[in-house]
Amino acid sequence: MPTPSKDEEDELESSKAPLLEHLVELRNRIIYSLWAFLIAFLFCFFFAKNIYSFLTQPLADAVAGQSDRRMIFTALYEAFFTQVKVGMWGALCLAFPFMAWQLWMFIAPGLYKHERKAFWPFLLATPFMFILGGSFVYYLMLPRAIRFFLSYENKGSDGTIPIELQARVGEYLDFVTTLIFAFGFCFELPVLLMLLGKVGIVTSKGLASVRRYAIVGVFVVAAVVTPPDAFSQLSLAFPLVALYEASIWGVWLIERNRAKKEAAEAAGTPAQPA
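Predicted structure:
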């Protein structure tokens, strides 16, 4: 990161405040975030049935044409609490941008101007990559995983008992939301590594040198956060390996641009944009 200028140091110095004021500011940001979550929860709880229908659409598509299919709940309160969890899940997704903005507004005054400018691309990339990961699992991986699990049904014959899916509403919600969050957070890998590269904690050579260990770690993570079948695990592992390779190139570009800028500053000429 470049050395802060005198004006930036003066700006940061003028933004300093006593500890008590920082605590009050933090409390206000937390309260704003909680209010945003509450409002989003009430909105999502009102439309919980519609959100749940959207989440169950891959299952409905997999069993289309089978009129005897249904979802069940085995506890008196299960359907209600499932809708509550749908509302909380939807509220977290809906209110997260505002909550992240409140966190940024609390942290930003403690950063130099050039540091705030450097963080903006990563702040914008974070929700984009999360949505990309969630969309990947919902539209590509989940329908195939459901068909894989349904292939273990057995219609039965003389002397045998049929085996068929009767999905519980609560278990299905936990299954889908866990996958969406797991893929969404795992797709943040390039953002995290490039941010670490931006501040100089990791280098492209360092990432390339531990590639084999990273690939092993990727497959371990995929085995833990996905259902216990090879298709689901490979569906997460292969994109993560590709994202890791993209992160190496991204960090290399950051290092190249930094080297160009430092060389230009040393020569006393303005750096050319990459």
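Summary: Residues 60 and 69 are 9 Å apart (CA to CA).
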